[in-house]
Structures are given as C-alpha cells and as structure tokens.
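Workshop exercise sheet. Pairs work together: one partner reads the sequence aloud, the other fills in the structure field after running the prediction. Swap roles for the next sheet.
Pair: D.N. / O.F.
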Amino acid sequence: MITDLSDPRVELARQTVGAVSVVADPTLPPRLLRLADAHGRMYFAKQHKNRERYVRETLAYLTWGRHLEGHAPELIGRHDSTRTLLVTAMSGSNVETFSPASSEEEQAHHDAGVVLGRLHRATAVARTGAIGADLAQRLLGWMGRADRIGLLSVAERGSLREAADALSGTLTDSAVCHLDYQPRNWIFGERFGVCDFEHMRRDARVRDFTRLEFRRWQAAPHLRDTFFIGYGTPLTDTDQRLLERFGAIEAITALVRGHEQDDPVLSAHGRTVLSRLS
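Structure field:
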C-alpha cells in the first residue's frame, strides 16, 4: 500500500489539515488510512475504486449525515477526480471486537437501535410499491449471475423466484437506509458512532435490519430485543415476513460474492440463509 506523499489520501489530508503522519492499523482494509495531524487529531482517508460508491458516500455525508446527530464522522475533505474522502475519526472501540454476551455488546445494540430509529423517522416516506418492484429485479439479477456459474439447485431457484414474485407486489415503507448496518461499522465509546456510508440510499426501511437478523440475531435473539427497545418501534408480523423475503437477497448475494471472492465463510452463510428460506 502506498503511504508516501504521492498517495491521494495523504495529499488530500495535507491540503485539508496540514502535515499528517500515517498511523499503522493492520485491521483496516487497504483503501483506508488512519492519519494523525500535528495536534494529534485523528482522521480516516478513504479512496474508492468504484465511482458510484464514492458518489453515494459523499452524498450520504453531505445530505443525510445531519440526521445522525453527531453519531457519524464528519466529512472535512474530498477530491472527486481521485474518489478520495477525508473524515474525522470517532473515539471508541469497534463493536465487532466485543466479546459475545458482554454488557458492552448489548449496550451497543441498544444504542445502534436509537441512532437508526432517528435516521429512519427523519427520512420516512409512506408505503409505496416502487421499491418492492426494484428489489425484485435486483434479486432476479443476482439469480442470473448465480445461474451462470451453477450455484443454484432447482429447489433453491424456486424459493428465490417465489421471494422475487412476492417482493414485486409488496408495498413497503421507505427511508434512507445504511444497508450495511452491523457491528463492524459501529464505534462504541463516550458516543455511539456509525461509519461506512458507501451503500447508503433510500430503500425499504425493514431492509436495514437484514444483516443483523441473518448474521447476528439468530444466535443471540436477546440482542434483537435490545435493539428494538432502542429503535422505538417493534417489528410487526408484516415486517417480519418482509424481512424473510429480504433474506433471499442476503442469501444470493452472499453465495455469488463468496464464489467470486473465494470466500468459503461467506458462501456458507449464503447457504445457511437460503436453507432457512426453503
């Protein structure tokens, strides 16, 4: 990874806050750098490969970040031609590192519910069928990719097709959604924080619970209860049925990406979710 002055992330930071040094952090993906300025203030610089995700994350900071009321990093610099962002670093620990069943994990889920509830309520739109139809087409698109590499059985394809048909006629509340809302993107300290907004867009509100439902809450249902106490509105039976349909998207994307990235853990997750839906 390039970390000298020719690195666009370092250059953006120097132009924005002055002299900086790179802080070694082996837990970060290659596109992210942790930086410190001359006063010890910490930042993250991120360079996107994909322009669409760069535009989406920039829009999230500029347009919807205010609804998170101080629970998100602050965007302080960007460079469009290199698709680079500079944001403040929130103090605290990544919730992904917390011990299962710890009091910190439970409190983090409660606070995550509070923050997401504020975002959803501030951006809510009445029930519409447009999002359900769009999600059905996305599901069919992922199914096509899976079929081209032979990932689906006849029975699995039938279950996914049934979910797509159901989604196409579904009316659903919409809101601005994070769409990767899970502990790896949560910071727990004096103030709860959420990061990584490259997927953020208007979508079906309930879809923001999908990764928690299928990656966390199955093994720890008490965390679901704690989360929705913070969120302020419990899941209705209709919401739960809709969440199961969104599980089809979770399953097929995990299967395809697991295959493409040679990630057996992700592939196994996709199979597990798909078996639950069959």
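Discussion prompt: The two ends are 43 Å apart (CA to CA). What would you look at next?
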